[in-house]
Design the sequence.
C-alpha cells in the first residue's frame, strides 16, 4: 500500500475559467451556480459567480481527485488505501446530496412561480432559499449588542449536513480557499474582505510570504506592556 | 490477513509518537535502550508536506483523524445511544498534536497538584492529589523548555512558581489585537504577558524559524519555527541509532504473559499483516482516549475488564478542557484594523484569574489569552449570518476588525465522565471505538460563564463595540486536550498508575500521556505532560530497566 507520506502529486491546479463539467449536468451546474450567487451575492465587489465557486464545487464533488492540493499547489495528492476508500464513500453521499438538492430547489421553485430555480428572479430565488433553509433570511450584523452562543467544534467538516448548510459551507470555501481548488479566482474573495493572502501555496513554504507588516507596527517595549517586569530582576537567560 | 511475522524483541515499545511518545522515545534511546515507536498515522515530512492551505488543514482532514476510519461516539447521558462525533480530534500521526497546535506551553501551578488537599470532598467531583508535586516536575519542565524550544519572557508571569532557568528564545512581536489586549489589561490591573509558546524565534538548537505566514493554529509548519516532536525529538531519537519508527502501523492489543507482565504488542502493519513485537517494557502514549481504549481492548484471562484495570478506573474521570471565548467586533469606519489573521495564534495572555476565589461561586480557574481570529473560510465569528448580503457584509466589515479572548476550561474530574468501548460502532480495523460519556459539572459551567464574561469585559475595555460570548453547554473536545483516564496515585484501589506512570497491576506497562493526570489543571497540558513523560522515562531508563524499584516519598 502507498503510505500517506508517499502519496503522489498528480494533475494541476484547477482552471477557474473552465466550463468543462466533471460531475454536474448543465442544468445542475446552472442551478448550483445561481444558488451560490444568492449565498455570496455580487455587489460593488465580486460574488460567488465571478469567483467561480461553481468550478470549485463541481471538482470537489466529482470524486477524490481534488480533495487535498499538493503542499506547493502544483497539483493534487493521489489518495491511496483506506483513506481513498473513506473519501470515495463520503463523495458518493455528497453527489447524491447535490443531485437530490437540485431537485428539491426546483420543486420548491415550481411551487413559487411554475419555473425552475434558474429561471426565477433573485428575489424569488431568495424566497426558495428561505423555504429550503426553514429560517428567515439572515439580517445584518448590528453593533452595540452582546449575543451569546454555546460551544462548538472548531473546523467545519461537511459530512452529514443538510443540503442548504452544505451549499452555504461550500460557497464560503469556494470563495475563500486557495485558488488552486478552482474558486477564489484571482484571489477576488480575499480582496473583497482585505486578506492579503500568498501568491501561491509554494510561497508559504519557503519564507517568501511574510505577514510581519500586519502585526503591531509601532514601537513597543515589553517593560511598558508588562509593568510587572519592572519589579523583577533581569530575566536569567535572555533579555526581553 | 497475511502471516504473522515475529521480529526481534527490543527493550521498549512506545505506542503513539505524539508529544509524549516522542519524549519517551528520545529519553529512552538516548539512555541506550533499543526502542521501537509505533504510530497508526503517517510519518510526514514537514518541509515537504506543510503549507498555508486553509481548506486542506482546517476544513478537510489532511491531519485531523478521518471520521470514517477512526470514528468516536459521544453521549451526554447514560441512557442515550452514543452518536458518531469527532470528539477531541487530536491528529494521529508521528508528532501527534504538536503538528497542528498553536503551542501554548504555560507552566502548571503548585495548586494544580493538590486540589483534593485544598478543596476536600466537593459534591459530584472526584478530586485527587497528584502523587508528586510541582517541585518534582520543575527540573523536567526546564528540560522540555530547552530541548524542545519555547519562547517567552522569564519573570513576566506574576503568578508563576519557581523556575530554575529562563527561556531559550524571545517572544514574537505583539500583533495589533495583542497590543489592544495588553493595553486593556493594564487599564484593568491584569498581569498580561506573552504566553510561553512552543516555537522559537531564533536559531536555538540550529533551527531556522523562517515561517512568518501566520498560517499556524491547525496548520503544519514547514519551517523550524514550531516546536513539533516530528522535527525535534523524533530526529534526536533516530540520531542515537537505537530507535526505529513504524508508522501507519496500528497497535490493536497489548499482549500479556503468564508471569503477569506484558510481552509486547500486536499490530497491523501498512500492508495489513498482523505482527507481534515483543519488548521488555510497553509504554503507552496514545492520548488519554486511545490509551484507555487500547487498555480496554487488551483483555486477557488475568484482566477480563481490560489491561491494568483491577481498580475499574480505566477510562473514568476523563477531563477535556473545552476552549471557550468571547469575540469582540470593532467599527471599520472608526477603529484601526486589528488584522486578526496575523500571528502565531496567541498574542498576550494572563493567569490573573487562575487561583480559587470562592467569591466567584466556583473553585479553580483558568488561563486566558488573546488569539488569532484566523483565516477567511473559518474566521471566528459565532452567530455570523449564513448567507446573502448580511453574510457578505459581515465578512467584509469585520474580518479585519475582530479580536478574541479565549480560555482553557479547568474542568473538574467526575467519575462517570469517561471513555469506554462503544457496543456497536467499529473502526476501519473492525475494533470497537472509544465512546465518550460526558456531562459537565456545575462548577465547569459556572467557571466558564464567569471567565467568558470577564473576557468580554476585557474586550470592552479594549474598545470592542459588540461582543459574542461563547458559554459552555456541553463538551465537544475542541482543545484536543485529554486527561485522567488512568489516574496516577499511590493507592491501587483508587488509581491505575503509580507516581512513575507505571501500572499498579503490570510492572512493565507504563502510560506517559495525559491519562495519568488526576486533575486537568487549568493550563494547556502538553508541557506538563511532556515533562512528566520525561520524568517517567528517566525512571524507566535509570531505575526500572536496571532491575530496581523506588518509591517517591509522599508529601505529608
Sequence:
Amino acid at each position: 500500500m502507498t503510505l500517506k507520506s508517499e502519496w503522489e502529486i498528480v494533475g494541476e491546479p484547477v482552471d477557474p475559467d473552465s466550463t468543462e463539467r466533471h460531475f454536474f449536468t448543465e442544468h445542475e451546474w446552472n442551478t448550483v451556480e445561481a444558488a451560490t450567487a444568492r449565498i455570496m451575492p455580487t455587489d460593488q465587489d465580486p460574488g460567488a459567480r465571478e469567483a467561480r465557486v461553481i468550478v470549485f464545487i463541481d471538482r470537489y464533488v466529482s470524486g477524490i481527485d481534488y480533495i487535498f492540493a499538493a503542499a506547493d499547489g502544483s497539483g493534487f495528492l493521489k489518495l491511496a488505501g483506506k483513506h481513498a476508500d473513506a473519501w470515495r464513500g463520503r463523495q458518493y453521499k455528497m453527489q447524491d446530496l447535490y443531485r437530490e438538492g437540485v431537485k428539491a430547489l426546483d420543486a420548491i421553485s415550481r411551487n413559487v412561480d411554475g419555473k425552475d430555480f434558474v429561471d426565477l428572479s433573485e428575489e424569488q430565488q431568495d424566497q426558495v432559499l428561505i423555504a429550503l433553509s426553514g429560517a428567515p433570511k439572515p439580517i445584518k450584523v448590528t453593533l452595540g449588542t452582546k449575543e451569546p452562543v454555546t460551544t462548538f467544534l472548531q473546523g467545519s467538516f461537511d459530512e452529514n449536513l443538510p443540503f442548504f448548510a452544505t451549499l452555504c459551507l461550500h460557497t464560503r470555501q469556494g470563495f475563500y480557499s486557495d485558488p488552486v481548488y478552482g474558486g477564489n479566482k484571482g484571489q477576488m474573495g480575499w480582496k473583497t474582505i482585505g486578506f492579503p493572502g500568498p501568491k501561491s501555496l509554494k510561497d508559504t513554504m519557503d519564507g517568501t510570504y511574510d505577514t510581519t507588516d500586519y502585526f503591531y507596527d509601532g514601537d513597543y517595549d515589553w517593560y511598558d506592556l508588562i509593568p510587572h517586569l519592572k519589579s523583577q530582576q533581569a530575566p536569567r537567560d535572555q533579555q526581553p | 490477513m497475511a502471516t504473522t511475522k515475529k521480529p526481534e524483541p527490543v527493550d521498549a515499545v512506545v505506542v503513539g509518537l505524539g508529544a509524549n511518545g516522542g519524549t519517551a522515545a528520545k529519553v529512552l534511546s538516548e539512555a541506550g535502550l533499543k526502542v521501537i515507536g509505533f504510530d497508526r498515522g503517517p510519518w510526514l515530512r514537514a518541509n515537504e508536506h506543510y503549507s498555508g492551505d486553509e481548506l486542506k488543514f482546517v476544513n478537510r482532514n489532511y491531519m485531523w483523524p478521518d471520521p470514517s476510519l477512526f470514528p468516536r461516539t459521544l453521549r451526554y447521558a447514560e441512557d442515550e445511544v452514543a452518536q458518531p462525533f469527532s470528539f477531541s480530534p487530536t491528529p494521529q500521526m508521528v508528532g501527534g498534536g504538536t503538528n497542528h497546535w498553536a503551542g501554548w506551553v504555560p507552566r502548571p501551578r503548585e495548586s494544580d497538584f493538590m486540589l483534593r488537599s485544598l478543596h476536600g470532598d466537593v459534591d459530584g467531583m472526584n478530586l485527587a492529589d497528584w502523587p508528586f508535586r510541582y517541585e518534582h516536575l520543575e527540573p523536567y519542565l526546564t528540560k522540555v523548555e530547552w530541548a524542545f524550544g519555547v519562547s517567552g519572557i522569564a519573570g513576566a508571569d506574576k503568578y508563576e512558581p519557581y523556575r530554575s532557568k529562563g527561556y531559550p528564545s524571545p517572544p514574537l512581536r505583539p500583533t495589533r489585537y495583542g497590543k489592544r489586549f495588553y493595553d486593556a489589561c493594564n487599564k484593568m490591573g491584569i498581569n498580561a504577558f506573552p504566553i510561553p509558546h512552543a516555537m522559537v524565534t531564533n536559531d536555538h538548537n540550529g533551527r531556522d524559524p523562517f515561517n512568518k505566514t501566520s498560517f499556524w493554529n491547525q496548520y503544519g509548519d514547514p519551517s523550524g519555527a514550531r516546536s513539533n516532536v516530528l522535527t525535534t525529538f523524533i530526529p534526536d531519537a533516530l540520531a542515537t541509532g537505537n530507535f526505529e519508527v513504524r508508522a501507519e502501523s496500528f497497535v490493536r492489543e497489548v499482549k500479556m504473559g503468564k508471569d503477569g507482565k506484558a510481552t509486547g504488542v500486536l499490530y497491523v502493519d501498512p500492508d495489513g499483516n498482523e505482527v507481534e513485537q515483543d519488548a521488555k517494557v510497553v509504554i503507552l502514549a496514545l492520548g488519554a482516549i486511545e490509551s484507555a481504549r487500547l487498555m480496554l481492548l487488551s483483555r486477557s484471562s488475568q484482566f477480563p475488564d481490560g489491561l491494568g484495570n483491577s481498580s475499574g478506573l480505566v477510562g473514568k474521570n476523563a477531563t477535556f478542557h473545552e476552549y471557550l471565548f468571547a469575540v469582540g467586533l470593532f467599527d471599520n469606519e472608526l477603529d484601526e484594523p486589528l488584522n486578526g489573521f496575523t500571528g502565531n495564534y496567541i498574542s498576550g495572555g494572563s493567569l490573573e484569574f487562575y487561583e480559587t476565589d470562592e467569591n466567584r461561586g466556583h473553585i479553580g480557574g483558568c488561563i486566558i489569552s488573546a488569539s488569532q481570529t484566523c483565516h477567511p473560510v473559518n474566521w471566528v465569528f459565532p452567530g455570523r449570518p449564513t448567507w446573502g448580503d448580511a453574510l457578505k457584509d459581515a465578512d467584509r466589515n469585520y474580518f479585519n476588525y475582530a479580536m478574541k479572548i479565549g480560555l482553557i476550561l479547568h474542568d473538574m474530574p467526575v467519575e462517570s465522565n469517561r471513555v469506554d468501548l462503544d457496543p456497536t460502532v467499529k473502526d476501519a480495523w473492525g475494533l470497537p471505538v472509544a465512546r465518550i460519556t460526558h456531562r459537565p459539572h456545575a462548577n465547569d459551567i459556572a467557571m466558564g460563564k464567569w471567565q467568558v464574561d470577564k473576557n468580554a469585559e476585557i474586550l470592552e475595555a479594549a474598545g470592542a463595540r459588540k461582543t459574542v460570548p461563547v458559554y459552555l453547554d456541553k463538551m465537544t473536545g475542541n482543545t484536543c486536550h485529554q486527561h485522567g483516564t488512568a489516574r496516577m496515585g499511590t493507592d491501587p484501589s483508587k488509581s491505575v498508575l503509580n507516581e512513575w506512570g507505571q501500572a499498579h497491576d503490570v510492572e512493565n506497562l507504563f502510560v506517559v500521556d495525559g491519562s495519568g493526570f488526576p486533575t486537568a489543571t487549568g493550563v494547556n497540558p502538553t508541557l506538563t505532560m511532556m515533562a512528566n513523560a520525561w520524568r517517567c522515562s528517566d525512571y524507566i531508563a535509570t531505575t526500572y530497566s536496571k532491575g530496581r524499584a523506588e518509591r517517591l516519598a509522599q508529601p505529608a
Observations:
- Strands of chain A lie at 9-10, 76-77, 149-150.
